[in-house]
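re: ur question from earlier - yeah i can do the single chain one, its not a big deal. heres the input i used so u can compare w yours
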Amino acid sequence: MATSSTAAKAPVSARARNAARKPREFTFLWEGRDRGGKQVRGEMRASGEAIVQSSLRRQGIIVTKVKKQRYKRGKKITDRDITMFTRQLATMMKSGVPLLQSFDIVAKGTDNGSVAKLFVDIKNDVETGTALSQAFRKYPLYFDSLFCNLVGAGEAAGILDDLLDRLATYKEKIEAIKGKIKSALFYPVAVLVVAFIVVAVIMLFVVPAFKQVFESFGADLPAPTLAVIAISDIFTEYWYLIFGGIGGAIYFFLQAWRRSPKVQMFMDRLLLRLPIFGSVVEKATIARWLRTLSTMFAAGVPLVEALDSVGGASGNIVYLQATKKIQQEVSTGTSLTVAMQNSGVFPNMVLQMASIGEESGSLDSMLGKSADIYEREVDDAVESLSSLLEPLIMVVLGTLIGGLVVAMYLPIFKLGQVV
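and the output i got, formated as C-alpha coordinates:
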Protein backbone atom coordinates (compact mmCIF):
# COMPACT_ATOMS: atom_id res chain seq x y z
CA MET A 1 0.00 0.00 0.00
CA ALA A 2 2.82 2.38 0.83
CA THR A 3 4.44 1.65 -2.52
CA SER A 4 1.27 2.37 -4.46
CA SER A 5 0.73 5.56 -2.47
CA THR A 6 4.25 6.71 -3.31
CA ALA A 7 3.69 5.87 -6.95
CA ALA A 8 0.46 7.86 -6.95
CA LYS A 9 2.16 10.89 -5.47
CA ALA A 10 5.07 10.82 -7.89
CA PRO A 11 3.16 11.93 -11.02
CA VAL A 12 1.45 14.69 -9.05
CA SER A 13 4.74 16.10 -7.82
CA ALA A 14 6.21 15.73 -11.30
CA ARG A 15 3.33 17.69 -12.79
CA ALA A 16 3.75 20.36 -10.12
CA ARG A 17 7.46 20.65 -10.95
CA ASN A 18 6.73 20.84 -14.66
CA ALA A 19 4.15 23.55 -14.06
CA ALA A 20 6.63 25.47 -11.93
CA ARG A 21 9.29 25.13 -14.65
CA LYS A 22 6.97 26.31 -17.42
CA PRO A 23 8.62 29.39 -18.95
CA ARG A 24 6.86 32.70 -18.74
CA GLU A 25 5.21 33.73 -21.97
CA PHE A 26 5.03 37.18 -23.54
CA THR A 27 3.14 38.72 -26.42
CA PHE A 28 5.25 39.36 -29.55
CA LEU A 29 4.24 41.50 -32.52
CA TRP A 30 5.62 40.23 -35.83
CA GLU A 31 5.73 41.25 -39.48
CA GLY A 32 6.75 39.23 -42.54
CA ARG A 33 5.85 37.87 -46.00
CA ASP A 34 3.94 34.70 -46.79
CA ARG A 35 4.73 32.23 -49.58
CA GLY A 36 3.04 34.48 -52.12
CA GLY A 37 5.13 37.49 -51.10
CA LYS A 38 2.16 39.23 -49.43
CA GLN A 39 2.93 41.40 -46.41
CA VAL A 40 1.41 39.89 -43.24
CA ARG A 41 1.54 40.77 -39.57
CA GLY A 42 0.14 39.51 -36.31
CA GLU A 43 0.88 38.66 -32.69
CA MET A 44 1.91 35.49 -30.89
CA ARG A 45 2.31 34.31 -27.30
CA ALA A 46 5.70 32.70 -26.69
CA SER A 47 8.52 32.55 -24.16
CA GLY A 48 11.06 34.10 -26.52
CA GLU A 49 11.69 35.72 -29.90
CA ALA A 50 13.46 32.65 -31.28
CA ILE A 51 10.39 30.49 -30.70
CA VAL A 52 8.23 33.02 -32.57
CA GLN A 53 10.56 33.01 -35.57
CA SER A 54 10.80 29.20 -35.58
CA SER A 55 7.01 28.81 -35.44
CA LEU A 56 6.44 31.32 -38.25
CA ARG A 57 9.08 29.70 -40.45
CA ARG A 58 7.27 26.37 -40.11
CA GLN A 59 4.16 28.17 -41.40
CA GLY A 60 6.10 29.36 -44.46
CA ILE A 61 6.36 32.97 -43.34
CA ILE A 62 9.56 34.93 -43.92
CA VAL A 63 9.93 37.02 -40.76
CA THR A 64 11.12 40.60 -41.20
CA LYS A 65 10.42 42.01 -37.74
CA VAL A 66 9.66 40.64 -34.27
CA LYS A 67 9.34 42.70 -31.10
CA LYS A 68 7.95 42.16 -27.65
CA GLN A 69 4.74 44.07 -27.01
CA ARG A 70 5.28 46.63 -24.28
CA TYR A 71 2.63 48.60 -22.47
CA LYS A 72 3.04 52.18 -21.47
CA ARG A 73 3.13 52.88 -17.78
CA GLY A 74 -0.52 53.63 -17.22
CA LYS A 75 -2.60 55.36 -14.64
CA LYS A 76 -4.33 53.65 -11.76
CA ILE A 77 -7.23 51.40 -12.78
CA THR A 78 -10.47 52.89 -11.43
CA ASP A 79 -14.04 51.65 -11.05
CA ARG A 80 -14.94 53.83 -14.01
CA ASP A 81 -12.47 51.88 -16.19
CA ILE A 82 -14.02 48.57 -15.14
CA THR A 83 -17.52 49.94 -15.77
CA MET A 84 -16.61 51.09 -19.27
CA PHE A 85 -14.95 47.72 -19.98
CA THR A 86 -18.06 45.84 -18.85
CA ARG A 87 -20.32 47.94 -21.07
CA GLN A 88 -18.01 47.56 -24.10
CA LEU A 89 -17.66 43.80 -23.58
CA ALA A 90 -21.44 43.37 -23.19
CA THR A 91 -22.14 45.44 -26.32
CA MET A 92 -19.66 43.52 -28.47
CA MET A 93 -20.83 40.11 -27.29
CA LYS A 94 -24.46 41.06 -27.96
CA SER A 95 -23.34 42.07 -31.46
CA GLY A 96 -21.86 38.61 -32.03
CA VAL A 97 -18.18 39.47 -31.60
CA PRO A 98 -16.26 36.48 -30.15
CA LEU A 99 -15.10 36.82 -26.56
CA LEU A 100 -11.35 36.78 -27.22
CA GLN A 101 -11.66 39.25 -30.08
CA SER A 102 -13.74 41.50 -27.81
CA PHE A 103 -10.90 41.56 -25.29
CA ASP A 104 -8.45 42.50 -28.07
CA ILE A 105 -10.65 45.37 -29.22
CA VAL A 106 -11.14 46.74 -25.70
CA ALA A 107 -7.43 46.45 -24.83
CA LYS A 108 -6.33 48.25 -28.00
CA GLY A 109 -8.98 50.94 -27.60
CA THR A 110 -7.86 52.21 -24.19
CA ASP A 111 -5.21 54.87 -23.56
CA ASN A 112 -4.40 53.52 -20.11
CA GLY A 113 -1.51 51.03 -20.32
CA SER A 114 -2.44 49.43 -16.99
CA VAL A 115 -5.97 48.72 -18.23
CA ALA A 116 -4.68 47.29 -21.53
CA LYS A 117 -2.26 44.95 -19.73
CA LEU A 118 -4.98 43.75 -17.36
CA PHE A 119 -7.33 42.85 -20.20
CA VAL A 120 -4.58 41.12 -22.20
CA ASP A 121 -3.64 39.03 -19.14
CA ILE A 122 -7.29 38.01 -18.66
CA LYS A 123 -7.60 37.17 -22.36
CA ASN A 124 -4.49 34.98 -22.16
CA ASP A 125 -5.96 33.10 -19.19
CA VAL A 126 -9.18 32.48 -21.11
CA GLU A 127 -7.20 31.33 -24.16
CA THR A 128 -5.56 28.61 -22.06
CA GLY A 129 -8.97 27.20 -21.07
CA THR A 130 -9.68 29.12 -17.85
CA ALA A 131 -13.32 30.08 -17.32
CA LEU A 132 -13.96 33.81 -17.63
CA SER A 133 -15.26 34.10 -14.06
CA GLN A 134 -12.14 32.31 -12.75
CA ALA A 135 -9.91 34.62 -14.80
CA PHE A 136 -11.64 37.60 -13.19
CA ARG A 137 -11.22 36.11 -9.72
CA LYS A 138 -7.43 36.35 -10.11
CA TYR A 139 -7.78 40.14 -9.88
CA PRO A 140 -9.97 40.77 -6.77
CA LEU A 141 -8.72 44.35 -6.58
CA TYR A 142 -10.74 45.16 -9.72
CA PHE A 143 -13.43 42.46 -9.87
CA ASP A 144 -15.31 41.83 -6.62
CA SER A 145 -17.22 38.67 -5.70
CA LEU A 146 -20.47 40.15 -7.02
CA PHE A 147 -18.94 40.71 -10.46
CA CYS A 148 -17.41 37.23 -10.59
CA ASN A 149 -20.56 35.51 -9.30
CA LEU A 150 -22.72 37.15 -11.96
CA VAL A 151 -20.27 36.28 -14.73
CA GLY A 152 -20.13 32.71 -13.44
CA ALA A 153 -23.94 32.50 -13.42
CA GLY A 154 -24.01 33.79 -17.01
CA GLU A 155 -21.45 31.19 -18.13
CA ALA A 156 -23.33 28.36 -16.43
CA ALA A 157 -26.69 29.37 -17.94
CA GLY A 158 -25.30 30.22 -21.39
CA ILE A 159 -26.49 33.83 -21.18
CA LEU A 160 -23.18 35.58 -20.60
CA ASP A 161 -24.03 38.48 -22.93
CA ASP A 162 -27.28 39.20 -21.07
CA LEU A 163 -25.59 39.00 -17.68
CA LEU A 164 -22.77 41.30 -18.79
CA ASP A 165 -25.35 43.79 -20.03
CA ARG A 166 -27.19 43.63 -16.70
CA LEU A 167 -23.90 43.93 -14.84
CA ALA A 168 -22.85 46.95 -16.92
CA THR A 169 -26.17 48.68 -16.19
CA TYR A 170 -25.74 47.93 -12.48
CA LYS A 171 -22.21 49.34 -12.36
CA GLU A 172 -23.27 52.45 -14.32
CA LYS A 173 -26.03 53.17 -11.83
CA ILE A 174 -23.73 52.60 -8.85
CA GLU A 175 -21.09 54.88 -10.39
CA ALA A 176 -23.75 57.55 -10.95
CA ILE A 177 -24.77 57.44 -7.27
CA LYS A 178 -21.14 57.63 -6.12
CA GLY A 179 -20.54 60.56 -8.46
CA LYS A 180 -23.49 62.49 -7.05
CA ILE A 181 -22.36 61.91 -3.46
CA LYS A 182 -18.81 63.01 -4.31
CA SER A 183 -20.06 66.13 -6.09
CA ALA A 184 -22.21 67.00 -3.09
CA LEU A 185 -19.26 66.67 -0.72
CA PHE A 186 -16.61 68.17 -3.00
CA TYR A 187 -17.95 71.73 -3.00
CA PRO A 188 -18.00 72.35 0.78
CA VAL A 189 -14.71 70.53 1.31
CA ALA A 190 -13.02 72.54 -1.47
CA VAL A 191 -14.35 75.80 -0.06
CA LEU A 192 -13.15 74.93 3.45
CA VAL A 193 -9.67 74.08 2.13
CA VAL A 194 -9.48 77.38 0.21
CA ALA A 195 -10.72 79.26 3.26
CA PHE A 196 -8.03 77.68 5.44
CA ILE A 197 -5.33 78.61 2.91
CA VAL A 198 -6.60 82.20 2.70
CA VAL A 199 -6.70 82.55 6.50
CA ALA A 200 -3.19 81.04 6.76
CA VAL A 201 -1.84 83.56 4.22
CA ILE A 202 -3.46 86.43 6.10
CA MET A 203 -2.05 85.23 9.41
CA LEU A 204 1.47 84.61 8.07
CA PHE A 205 1.98 87.65 5.84
CA VAL A 206 -0.77 90.28 6.13
CA VAL A 207 -1.25 90.54 9.90
CA PRO A 208 2.52 90.83 10.69
CA ALA A 209 2.72 93.80 8.28
CA PHE A 210 -0.19 95.49 10.05
CA LYS A 211 1.39 94.69 13.41
CA GLN A 212 4.49 96.73 12.56
CA VAL A 213 2.31 99.67 11.53
CA PHE A 214 0.27 99.46 14.74
CA GLU A 215 3.39 99.37 16.93
CA SER A 216 4.42 102.73 15.48
CA PHE A 217 1.11 104.24 16.67
CA GLY A 218 2.04 103.75 20.31
CA ALA A 219 -1.65 103.48 21.27
CA ASP A 220 -3.74 100.75 22.87
CA LEU A 221 -5.25 98.37 20.34
CA PRO A 222 -8.83 97.04 20.43
CA ALA A 223 -9.41 93.56 21.86
CA PRO A 224 -10.36 91.95 18.48
CA THR A 225 -7.14 93.25 16.94
CA LEU A 226 -5.04 91.96 19.84
CA ALA A 227 -6.69 88.54 19.51
CA VAL A 228 -5.95 88.35 15.77
CA ILE A 229 -2.34 89.46 16.32
CA ALA A 230 -1.90 86.82 19.04
CA ILE A 231 -3.21 84.10 16.70
CA SER A 232 -0.93 85.42 13.94
CA ASP A 233 2.08 85.21 16.26
CA ILE A 234 1.27 81.56 16.98
CA PHE A 235 0.90 80.85 13.23
CA THR A 236 4.16 82.58 12.42
CA GLU A 237 6.16 80.82 15.11
CA TYR A 238 4.64 77.33 14.86
CA TRP A 239 3.39 77.17 11.25
CA TYR A 240 5.27 73.93 10.55
CA LEU A 241 3.68 72.25 13.57
CA ILE A 242 0.21 73.48 12.62
CA PHE A 243 0.38 72.36 8.99
CA GLY A 244 2.22 69.15 9.85
CA GLY A 245 -0.19 68.38 12.67
CA ILE A 246 -3.27 68.94 10.51
CA GLY A 247 -1.82 66.90 7.63
CA GLY A 248 -0.72 64.09 9.92
CA ALA A 249 -4.05 64.02 11.74
CA ILE A 250 -5.97 63.76 8.44
CA TYR A 251 -3.65 61.00 7.18
CA PHE A 252 -3.82 58.89 10.34
CA PHE A 253 -7.56 59.42 10.60
CA LEU A 254 -8.11 58.19 7.02
CA GLN A 255 -5.84 55.19 7.64
CA ALA A 256 -7.72 54.33 10.84
CA TRP A 257 -11.04 54.74 9.03
CA ARG A 258 -9.86 52.34 6.32
CA ARG A 259 -8.31 49.67 8.56
CA SER A 260 -10.04 49.78 11.96
CA PRO A 261 -13.52 48.19 12.13
CA LYS A 262 -14.35 50.23 15.24
CA VAL A 263 -13.51 53.52 13.53
CA GLN A 264 -15.44 52.42 10.42
CA MET A 265 -18.48 51.61 12.51
CA PHE A 266 -18.29 54.93 14.35
CA MET A 267 -17.89 56.98 11.16
CA ASP A 268 -20.54 55.10 9.20
CA ARG A 269 -23.03 55.57 12.03
CA LEU A 270 -22.04 59.23 12.27
CA LEU A 271 -22.49 59.79 8.53
CA LEU A 272 -26.01 58.38 8.70
CA ARG A 273 -26.90 60.73 11.59
CA LEU A 274 -25.46 63.98 10.22
CA PRO A 275 -28.18 66.66 10.09
CA ILE A 276 -27.61 67.73 6.46
CA PHE A 277 -25.65 64.97 4.73
CA GLY A 278 -27.10 62.04 6.70
CA SER A 279 -30.29 61.64 4.66
CA VAL A 280 -28.34 61.76 1.37
CA VAL A 281 -25.87 59.10 2.55
CA GLU A 282 -28.71 56.90 3.84
CA LYS A 283 -30.69 57.09 0.59
CA ALA A 284 -27.60 56.39 -1.50
CA THR A 285 -26.71 53.39 0.68
CA ILE A 286 -30.22 51.94 0.46
CA ALA A 287 -30.27 52.51 -3.32
CA ARG A 288 -26.99 50.58 -3.73
CA TRP A 289 -28.24 47.80 -1.46
CA LEU A 290 -31.49 47.39 -3.39
CA ARG A 291 -29.83 47.65 -6.81
CA THR A 292 -27.25 44.99 -5.92
CA LEU A 293 -29.78 42.51 -4.55
CA SER A 294 -32.12 43.09 -7.50
CA THR A 295 -29.34 42.50 -10.03
CA MET A 296 -28.09 39.30 -8.40
CA PHE A 297 -31.54 37.85 -7.77
CA ALA A 298 -32.59 38.57 -11.37
CA ALA A 299 -29.45 36.74 -12.56
CA GLY A 300 -30.65 33.58 -10.82
CA VAL A 301 -28.27 33.72 -7.85
CA PRO A 302 -29.97 32.15 -4.78
CA LEU A 303 -31.10 34.72 -2.23
CA VAL A 304 -28.86 33.54 0.64
CA GLU A 305 -25.83 33.46 -1.66
CA ALA A 306 -26.71 36.85 -3.16
CA LEU A 307 -26.77 38.46 0.27
CA ASP A 308 -23.05 37.63 0.62
CA SER A 309 -22.22 40.36 -1.89
CA VAL A 310 -25.00 42.81 -1.07
CA GLY A 311 -23.72 44.00 2.31
CA GLY A 312 -20.25 44.88 1.05
CA ALA A 313 -21.65 46.61 -2.03
CA SER A 314 -23.74 48.96 0.13
CA GLY A 315 -20.56 50.76 1.21
CA ASN A 316 -21.65 51.16 4.84
CA ILE A 317 -20.67 48.85 7.68
CA VAL A 318 -24.02 49.42 9.43
CA TYR A 319 -25.83 47.91 6.45
CA LEU A 320 -23.14 45.23 6.11
CA GLN A 321 -23.87 43.99 9.63
CA ALA A 322 -27.62 44.29 9.03
CA THR A 323 -27.23 42.20 5.86
CA LYS A 324 -25.39 39.45 7.74
CA LYS A 325 -28.24 39.32 10.22
CA ILE A 326 -30.79 39.21 7.38
CA GLN A 327 -28.83 36.39 5.72
CA GLN A 328 -28.84 34.32 8.91
CA GLU A 329 -32.59 34.74 9.35
CA VAL A 330 -33.38 33.99 5.68
CA SER A 331 -31.23 30.84 5.79
CA THR A 332 -33.40 29.54 8.67
CA GLY A 333 -36.64 30.05 6.73
CA THR A 334 -37.62 33.63 7.61
CA SER A 335 -39.00 35.67 4.72
CA LEU A 336 -36.83 38.45 3.33
CA THR A 337 -39.35 41.15 4.27
CA VAL A 338 -39.53 40.04 7.92
CA ALA A 339 -35.74 39.75 8.13
CA MET A 340 -35.33 43.25 6.66
CA GLN A 341 -37.89 44.60 9.12
CA ASN A 342 -36.06 42.98 12.04
CA SER A 343 -32.80 44.69 11.01
CA GLY A 344 -34.38 48.10 11.68
CA VAL A 345 -32.46 49.98 8.96
CA PHE A 346 -34.98 50.00 6.10
CA PRO A 347 -37.91 52.43 5.71
CA ASN A 348 -41.52 51.25 5.40
CA MET A 349 -41.73 51.90 1.67
CA VAL A 350 -38.86 49.47 0.96
CA LEU A 351 -40.41 46.84 3.24
CA GLN A 352 -43.79 47.15 1.54
CA MET A 353 -42.26 46.88 -1.94
CA ALA A 354 -40.26 43.81 -0.88
CA SER A 355 -43.38 42.23 0.61
CA ILE A 356 -45.34 42.77 -2.61
CA GLY A 357 -42.46 41.32 -4.60
CA GLU A 358 -42.30 38.19 -2.46
CA GLU A 359 -46.06 37.64 -2.64
CA SER A 360 -46.24 38.17 -6.41
CA GLY A 361 -43.04 36.28 -7.26
CA SER A 362 -41.42 39.38 -8.78
CA LEU A 363 -38.97 40.28 -6.03
CA ASP A 364 -36.20 41.36 -8.41
CA SER A 365 -38.55 43.74 -10.25
CA MET A 366 -39.91 45.34 -7.07
CA LEU A 367 -36.43 45.75 -5.60
CA GLY A 368 -35.29 47.35 -8.87
CA LYS A 369 -38.22 49.79 -8.78
CA SER A 370 -37.42 50.65 -5.17
CA ALA A 371 -33.81 51.31 -6.19
CA ASP A 372 -35.05 53.60 -8.99
CA ILE A 373 -37.12 55.58 -6.49
CA TYR A 374 -34.20 56.04 -4.10
CA GLU A 375 -31.81 56.94 -6.89
CA ARG A 376 -34.18 59.73 -7.94
CA GLU A 377 -34.44 60.83 -4.32
CA VAL A 378 -30.64 61.00 -4.15
CA ASP A 379 -30.66 63.25 -7.24
CA ASP A 380 -33.24 65.56 -5.67
CA ALA A 381 -31.45 65.58 -2.31
CA VAL A 382 -28.11 66.48 -3.91
CA GLU A 383 -29.69 69.38 -5.81
CA SER A 384 -31.40 70.64 -2.64
CA LEU A 385 -28.17 70.23 -0.70
CA SER A 386 -26.22 72.29 -3.23
CA SER A 387 -28.76 75.14 -3.12
CA LEU A 388 -28.72 75.05 0.69
CA LEU A 389 -24.95 74.93 1.11
CA GLU A 390 -24.08 77.82 -1.20
CA PRO A 391 -25.60 80.61 0.96
CA LEU A 392 -24.52 78.86 4.16
CA ILE A 393 -20.89 78.68 3.04
CA MET A 394 -21.00 82.30 1.88
CA VAL A 395 -22.19 83.36 5.33
CA VAL A 396 -19.44 81.37 7.07
CA LEU A 397 -16.70 82.69 4.77
CA GLY A 398 -18.01 86.24 4.98
CA THR A 399 -18.05 86.11 8.77
CA LEU A 400 -14.55 84.59 8.97
CA ILE A 401 -12.73 86.72 6.40
CA GLY A 402 -14.78 89.82 7.14
CA GLY A 403 -14.11 89.49 10.87
CA LEU A 404 -10.36 89.34 10.26
CA VAL A 405 -10.43 92.38 7.99
CA VAL A 406 -12.55 94.44 10.41
CA ALA A 407 -10.33 93.46 13.36
CA MET A 408 -7.24 94.72 11.50
CA TYR A 409 -8.85 97.98 10.40
CA LEU A 410 -10.36 98.93 13.77
CA PRO A 411 -7.20 100.73 14.96
CA ILE A 412 -7.09 102.70 11.71
CA PHE A 413 -10.71 103.74 12.15
CA LYS A 414 -9.99 104.87 15.75
CA LEU A 415 -6.92 106.77 14.60
CA GLY A 416 -9.04 108.56 11.99
CA GLN A 417 -11.58 109.60 14.64
CA VAL A 418 -8.80 111.00 16.86
CA VAL A 419 -7.31 112.99 14.00
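The chain is about 75% helix and 5% strand. not sure if urs matches, ping me
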